[in-house]
Structure formats: structure tokens, C-alpha cells
Write a structure and sequence with these properties.
Layout lengths: L2 H10 L3 H11 L7 H6 L2 H12 L4 H24 L2 H10 L14 H7 L4 H11 L8 E3 L5 E3 L1 H7 L3 H9 L6 H12 L5 H9 L7 H11 L5 H19 L2 H12 L6 H12 L6 H9 L3 H10 L4 H21 L1
Helix pairs in contact: 1-5, 7-8, 9-10, 12-14, 13-17, 14-18, 17-18, 17-19
Length: 328
């Protein structure tokens, strides 16, 4: 490996955008000031130190960065076409190892998902980039330049075939404490279809609690149409746990075997299934705090406890709220 290739390999291992920004500001020198420590990760400083040891000039460093960016641009153009044969030929002709173009500021898989390329191209990238897992995130230009994972981007656009592919290859829908669901709602990207998909694909019931609290708290600042979505989302969550596969199979079994089913027995089945999700007291307290009467009605509807006990608790929460308001 010659010196030039060595420099390119060193640069490819980091966030090229931040490295270029650092060089524009500081040159090939190490500046340990507080601002640089805050703006640039340790890896950038390490790369700069390595470039210093190789006696690399600013001009040479920028030339190497441009080579990487130009090859990346060409790769992206081919990927957008969805042509695996052209991509394969380009890689062979230029001695390119695809995974080496994934850096701290860029990921080929995320780029491909953002650009809605065919599933075959997604599979090609997965095969050639040899990802250890898909539970990672980088900054995405698609959504406010925020850090997003491949699974998030697939579910954002309701591209469930790609989401299935990622999940089948080890992506975790509960990655980072289930942040996926909260972020979809926060950025107004949650809809009926992707919520149902998430619930049906192993989202932990234990993580639902925080999401429900987020939905309730959002009522303080969201517009009326989004508030209606909140009610719909909560309804979907309750129905998911109430009318799950066990419930459906049970009803089908009764129907198939032509067993008589009284309203009392049906009510028992529904009551048993409603135990799959518990309406937590903190949900009631939060709904009372934000004066969400519609949400309170929904909770009461799906809470299998005695209604007089529930209503008494709600009344107590309202009294406590009045006391706090009076004292403040």
C-alpha cells in the first residue's frame, strides 16, 4: 500500500464531513481547545494526529477527501438506479469494497432506504457491507438532520418489506429502549399502519407505558387533528392487546366446533383478554392533569376493574389537582 492509499484508508474510517470542517478551520494541527473538544469527536483528533505523523499537507488531505466523496457520489448514483449489476461492475473495475464507504457521517444502507431503492438492492448492500447488526443510527438528511436507524427509516415510509428484511437479519424493534415509537410520534410520522406493524413485530409491552404517557402529555400543545390521532393510537394499542391472536383463535375454535357462546361467556373471554394490558393509575393521573376527558373515557372503557372504583380514583386525582392549583 502506498502513502496515498494509506491516507485514504485513514480518512475513510471517520466522519468525513467533520474532518473536512476541522481541517478548514484548523489545518493539519491539533487544537485541544474546549470548543474543538465539544464540536469534534475524539476520532477526528486521532486522525489528525495520524495525518501529522505521516506529514500530510492540507492540500493532500483535501485531495484524498475529494476522492472518497467522488467515489461515494458515483456509488450513490448507481444505487439510486437500483441496478445491482452496474454496481457490481463498478466495484470490480475500481477495486471498491463497499463497506469501506460507510463512515460516521454516511451509511449506504440508510442512503438506499431514504431513496426507496428496490428490495434487491437493499439485500445487495446488506450482503456486501457485512453489517454486524442494524441497531445503529447516523444523522439522516431525510428528517431534520437527526440521527436515525435503518429500521426507523423503513417504518417511517411504511416500507414494511424492507422492515421485514431488517428484522429477519437481526434489527431490534426495541432498540435504544424503544425510542422508535416515541420518535415516530414526535416527528408526526406515526400512522395507523406503522403503529400496528410495530405492535405486531415484538414491541415490548413494558415500553408501552412511556409511550402512552407521551401521548397524553402531547395533548397540551398539539392541534385538534393530531389529538384525534392520539385517541386513535390509544385505541389501536388497546385493541392490539385485547384482540390478539389467542383471542381470535379462541373465537374461531368456538365457531368451528359450533359451541354455544352466551353473552356471559363472551364477556368472560373479553375480560380475560383485557388483562393483557393494564390501565396504569399513572395514566389516569396524567390524563386528569392534562384534562383529557376523551382519553379518560377510553381508559375506563378498556379497564376491567369495577367502574365505581375507577371513577372514585379519578375524582380523587381531580381533587388533588385542585389542591395543587390552589396552593400554587
Amino acid at each position: 500500500m502506498n502513502m496515498f492509499d494509506e491516507i485514504i484508508n485513514e480518512i475513510k474510517a471517520t466522519d468525513i464531513t467533520k474532518l473536512e470542517n476541522y481541517i478548514d478551520k484548523n489545518g493539519i494541527t491539533v487544537e485541544y481547545g474546549y470548543l474543538n473538544f465539544f464540536l469534534y469527536p475524539k476520532k477526528i483528533i486521532e486522525i489528525i494526529e495520524r495525518l501529522i505523523s505521516l506529514e500530510v499537507s492540507v492540500e493532500t488531505a483535501k485531495k484524498c477527501i475529494n476522492i472518497i466523496k467522488n467515489k461515494r457520489y458515483k456509488l450513490c448514483e448507481i444505487i439510486k438506479k437500483g441496478n445491482e449489476i452496474e454496481l457490481d461492475n463498478y466495484m470490480k473495475e475500481n477495486g471498491i469494497i463497499l463497506k469501506e464507504f460507510n463512515t460516521g457521517d454516511f451509511d449506504l444502507l440508510i442512503y438506499a432506504i431514504e431513496n426507496e431503492v428496490p428490495l434487491k438492492m437493499i439485500q445487495y448492500i446488506i450482503n456486501h457491507c457485512q453489517y454486524e447488526n442494524f441497531n445503529y443510527s447516523i444523522y439522516s438528511s431525510m428528517i431534520d438532520n437527526l440521527s436515525k436507524s435503518p429500521l426507523f427509516l423503513a417504518i417511517t415510509t411504511n416500507n414494511f418489506k424492507i422492515a421485514d428484511l431488517l428484522l429477519n437479519n437481526g434489527a431490534d424493534i426495541n432498540y435504544n429502549e424503544g425510542i422508535l415509537l416515541c420518535q415516530l410520534f414526535e416527528y408526526h410520522l406515526l400512522n395507523r399502519k406503522n403503529l400496528i406493524y410495530i405492535l405486531n413485530n415484538g414491541f415490548h409491552k413494558e415500553l408501552i407505558n412511556d409511550f402512552v404517557l407521551d401521548l397524553i402529555a402531547s395533548s397540551e400543545y398539539i392541534e385538534k387533528d393530531i389529538y384525534c390521532n392520539v385517541i386513535n393510537f390509544l385505541e389501536i394499542i388497546f385493541k392490539h392487546y385485547l384482540y390478539n391472536n389467542n383471542f381470535i383463535l379462541n373465537i374461531l375454535y368456538i365457531y368451528k366446533n359450533k359451541k354455544p357462546l352466551s353473552s356471559t361467556n363472551l364477556e368472560k373471554i373479553i375480560t380475560n383478554e383485557s388483562n393483557n394490558i393494564k390501565v396504569d393509575d399513572i395514566w389516569y393521573r396524567t390524563a386528569v392533569f392534562y384534562a383529557c376527558d376523551d382519553i379518560l373515557e377510553l381508559f375506563i372503557k378498556y379497564d376491567n376493574r369495577k367502574k365505581d372504583i375507577i371513577l372514585k380514583s379519578i375524582e380523587n386525582y381531580k381533587k388533588l389537582g385542585n389542591i395543587y392549583n390552589y396552593e400554587s
